[in-house]
């Protein structure tokens, strides 16, 4: 059993991502300049246990929903050498553990992109939304695109590191 942690306003239950109020975004450096994008089609569930450290998270993101505000770039990102959306229509994250460390909250889990799975750690910030049955969860991580086989033809001009930010609003079920 994990050590108990106290999170103000925390409630046990099953929570579903409110996609209209949530954002799954990324940032990568291309030609030395930050390029930002997001995924517009995703879903997920957070099951919060009595002890927050026993909770679970699972998400599914539709890779074809990539949106960088540039249709030509988005079409390129969907190709087989990058996201390969026809062969791999989804990417997933499934938590393997939640831990508190040094005043921070972290969600460890398995991220699968292009059929390749690697462990990642999300750094989490929690804010209660006063007076409403909603919770806001902000998390971020950094991953290697090459580790997941997202290489493409422009290896030199695009950085390996991708910053991922999740701004999630969930509503409690039942």
TrEMBL record:
InterPro entries per the UniProt record, alphabetical: Lipid/polyisoprenoid-bd_YceI, TTHA0802/YceI-like_sf
Segments forming a coiled coil: none
SUPFAM superfamilies associated with the record: YceI-like
Domain Lipid/polyisoprenoid-binding YceI-like residues, every copy: 14-171
A Pfam family reported for this protein in Swiss-Prot or TrEMBL: YceI
Top-level division of the source organism's lineage: Bacteria
SMART domains for the chain: YceI
Family: Belongs to the UPF0312 family.
Designated name of the protein: YceI family protein
Natural source organism: Streptomyces litchfieldiae
Biological classification of the source: Bacteria, Bacillati, Actinomycetota, Actinomycetes, Kitasatosporales
């Amino acid at each position: 059993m994990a050590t108990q942690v106290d999170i103000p306003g925390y409630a046990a239950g099953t929570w579903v991502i409110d996609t209209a109020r949530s954002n799954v975004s990324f940032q990568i450096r291309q030609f030395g300049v930050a390029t930002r994008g997001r995924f517009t089609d995703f879903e997920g569930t957070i099951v919060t246990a009595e002890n927050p450290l026993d909770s679970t998270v699972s998400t599914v993101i539709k890779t074809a929903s990539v949106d960088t505000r540039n249709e030509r770039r988005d079409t390129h990102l969907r190709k087989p050498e990058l996201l390969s959306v026809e062969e791999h229509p989804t990417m997933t994250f499934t938590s393997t553990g939640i831990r508190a460390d040094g005043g921070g909250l972290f969600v460890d889990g398995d991220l699968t992109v292009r059929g390749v799975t690697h462990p990642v750690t999300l750094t989490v910030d929690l804010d209660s939304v006063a007076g409403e049955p909603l919770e806001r969860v902000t998390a971020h991580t950094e991953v290697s695109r090459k580790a997941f086989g997202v290489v493409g033809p422009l290896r030199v001009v695009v950085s390996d590191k991708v910053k991922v930010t999740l701004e999630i609003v969930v509503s409690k079920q039942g």
